[in-house]
Amino acid sequence: MSHTAVVITVSYSIALVLGAAISIAVWRSTLHGEETIDRATWSRRETAWLFIVLAGLVALLLGTIFYVPYGKSAGPNKQVVRVTAVQFAWAIDPPSVKANVPVEFQIGSRDVNHGFGVYDPHGTFVTQVQVVPGHMQKLVWTFKKPGTYKILCLEFCGAHHHEMIAELEVRRS
User: 101: which DSSP letter?
Assistant: First the structure.
């Protein structure tokens, strides 16, 4: 498992446990049938919980924001692959790239929304990006291992969506 996956899994697990603890605490606090309500005490508690939740959300954001893949630059030595999506095919130019060299996919659609999904030779999901008509989407990825990667459409685009498959050959550097 990658470092990124571990950080995100741990962060969200902590958030889940804290969320469950807070939910149980709130639920238990409603079980006491107090006749008089001390508004000042409840106001302080609500303010404290607000800051606790905000601090947790900020910690979660800071723990995961640096692992967001969008906005990456491929650098000056990049390989550029132009991809055009049409119902129900991918036009990929060039159809092969070198391993261990950043690839900048420039992806566009001529008709409807598509999901550009990349799968490794073993069928494991690698990366994806949404593609909408009229907008050139960029995706930067560095393939570590050579092989034949499959490109599938991940957004239902019509009756023959399941046939929208292409291949990208990744060669040794």
Answer: S
Inter-residue contact 103 to 141 (CB < 8 Å): yes
Per-residue burial over 154-166, b = 16 or more CB atoms within 10 Å of its CB, e = otherwise: bbebeeebeebeb
The reply to whether 72 falls in a domain is no
DSSP for 59-94 reads HHHHHHGGG--TT----TT-EEEEEEEETTEEEEES
Residue range of the domain that includes 36 = 3-67
Mean pLDDT of the chain: 88
Q: What is the rounded CA–CA span in Å between residue 41 and residue 123?
A: 57
In terms of domains, do 19 and 59 share one? Answer: yes
| pLDDT per position as a tens digit, 68-101 | 666 667 788 899 999 999 989 999 999 999 999 9
Q: Is residue 95 part of a domain?
A: yes
| Residue with token string 């685009």 | 157
| Residue type present at position 120 | D
Tokens representing 19 are 């969320």
CB atoms within 10 A of CB 57: 11
Give the strand pairing for 103-109 and 137-141.
antiparallel
- Whether 137 and 99 share a structural domain: yes
Q: What angle do CA 99, 146, 168 make, to 5 degrees?
A: 85
